[in-house]
Amino acid sequence: MVDVKSICCIGAGYVGGPTCAVIAYKCHNIKVTIVDLNQARIDAWNSDKLPIYEPGLEEVVFDRRGKNLFFTTDVDAAIEEADLIFVSVNTPTKKTGMGAGMAADLAYIEGATRRIAEVATRSKIVVEKSTVPCRTAESMRTILEANSTGSIHFDILSNPEFLAEGTAIKDLLNPDRVLIGALQTPEGISAQKSLAAVYQNWVPEDRVITTNLWSSELSKLAANALLAQRISSINALSAICEATGADVDEVAYACGRDSRLGSKFLKASVGFGGSCFQKDILNLVYLSQQLNLPEVADYWQQVVIMNEYQKKRFVRKIISTLFNTITNKRIAVLGFAFKKDTGDTRESAAITLIKDFIDENAHVAIYDPKVEHEQIYMDLAEPGVVDNRKQLEKSISICGDAYEACKGADAVVIVTEWDEFKSDQLDYQRIYDNMHKPAFLFDGRLLLDAAQIREIGFKVHIIGKNELAGTA
Ligand code: UDX
Ligand code: UDX
Ligand code: ADP
């Protein structure tokens, strides 16, 4: 078993950055070097303004940076120095070619793996940390073995990351479990123990689970698919609630009290987003198709179909409530991130909603407390459209606070559940006074106290609750 003294993390993104910063924070005797090809990203990690917003991240990074935590673009030197290398690069969904729209593009994984093979002059443990389809470790092993010489040996581990954005540091400091998969050979098991020992500096031993390589890889996809499936299930029920007068919060609570079901992840919403859920399910669908299991593929595909339906259903509801047209109306969108406490917008429901509003010729006023304005323009830009920015600037305004966004609006739409949008945080009377009447409010996050908001005069629609019930 190797006593790990030096770790390199390839990829300074949402996963690699926080994960390896926490390892440095908890293991002062290990030198952790996080590398990336993107100079701007590394510069940001070395500055006062980190490239990612994540509660608690600054404390961890500022505490260890320059001591046993380093950020650099010198990939080769860090590979050479490391006993153990995390590969934590991006694995976007393929845009073209075989499996387009579903399969993960493994070009970055392959690039990083080939670099390790070229640079390493001694044996290394290589850890697959990115979310990848099953059997990626096998491909990495093939590349590394084909390129290893004589005395150099590579052990491949799968160590999927289960952190959720917005709570990444909390999740990393106190994980439900750490999963480490390895080939069940003496060398594989020894490497597994080496990585387990790193985590055991702060994670109780019984929370470190060891499995074979394939179980570990599949567990990551399965965990995300099961979580997303719960959301699609409660969202499907939210449609029934709206049609019947049942209340989705009450239904979720009543079901969640069954200890076999549990209460978490049953919050109906305008649809799940984030970089993982859709991508991992589509990976699972693609894998099932490849394995000639079409019924299994269709089963998981339905989770994504339901998510798309939920977003479209919400848009339809807004348009029909606003007398079947939103042309030239001002729609205030509160929240652009895919969930609260993050500046990340990947697959955010806000993007789908706003594009639909723009297609209907509405003017959309957007406010989010953490998302950079440039990011919003990038997310809403249509590829290939000339002068897209100018057109977008006519259709949207990005505002400095919720009051500015809602001023003169016909409807307010809550898309992200930021605490600052709650009924006791935002002055909804002030918002109401400055809106066109009737003033409509659509809550896609079950965030508001409906009775209180209706008292002000708003016409309120909340996902999973009977429409406009109780309004004057
Ligand atoms: C997810 C997994 O939780 C994490 O374990 C994995 O490592 C990465 O993917 P993340 O995407 O960061 O994490 O956020 P998560 O909290 O899971 O939320 C995903 C989406 O589901 C968000 O858009 C969120 O708003 C939505 N959601 C979540 C609901 O609509 N209802 C819920 O009850 C929970
Ligand atoms: C179920 C509900 O559990 C109960 O709350 C409701 O009131 C009636 O329906 P029951 O049908 O008696 O109860 O048995 P249950 O233990 O839920 O099992 C149902 C079926 O699922 C069985 O065939 C069982 O073997 C199977 N099952 C259950 C699995 O295949 N895997 C599991 O993990 C659990
Ligand atoms: P994730 O959410 O999985 O962490 P990100 O896209 O946030 O994904 O981060 C992945 C990072 O990996 C990017 O900053 C990218 O520049 C980096 N990267 C990709 N390939 C390589 C490589 N071969 N060497 C170093 N860094 C890489």
Automatic annotation (TrEMBL):
Q: Which residues bind NAD(+)?
A: 11-16, 36, 41, 89-93, 130-131, 165, 276-279, 346
Query: Which domain of life does the UniProt lineage start with?
Result: Eukaryota
Which Gene Ontology molecular function entries are recorded, alphabetically?
NAD binding; UDP-glucose 6-dehydrogenase activity
Q: What is this protein called?
A: UDP-glucose 6-dehydrogenase
Alphabetized SUPFAM superfamilies for the sequence: 6-phosphogluconate dehydrogenase C-terminal domain-like, NAD(P)-binding Rossmann-fold domains, UDP-glucose/GDP-mannose dehydrogenase C-terminal domain
The record ties this protein, via InterPro entries, to:
6-PGluconate_DH-like_C_sf, NAD(P)-bd_dom_sf, UDP-Glc/GDP-Man, UDP-Glc/GDP-Man_DH_C, UDP-Glc/GDP-Man_DH_C_sf, UDP-Glc/GDP-Man_DH_dimer, UDP-Glc/GDP-Man_DH_N, UDPglc_DH_euk
Q: Which residues bind substrate?
A: 161-165, 220-224, 260, 267-273, 338-339, 445
Tell me the organism's taxonomic lineage. Eukaryota, Fungi, Fungi incertae sedis, Mucoromycota, Mucoromycotina
- Domain named UDP-glucose/GDP-mannose dehydrogenase C-terminal: which ranges? 332-450
State the UniProt keywords alphabetically.
NAD, Oxidoreductase
Q: Which Pfam families match?
A: UDPG_MGDP_dh, UDPG_MGDP_dh_C, UDPG_MGDP_dh_N
The species is Thamnidium elegans
GO cellular component assignments:
nucleus
Query: Is Ligase given among the entry's keywords?
Result: no
Pathway(s) served: Nucleotide-sugar biosynthesis; UDP-alpha-D-glucuronate biosynthesis; UDP-alpha-D-glucuronate from UDP-alpha-D-glucose: step 1/1
Signal peptide (UniProt feature, chain positions):
none
BP GO terms, sorted = glycosaminoglycan biosynthetic process; UDP-glucuronate biosynthetic process
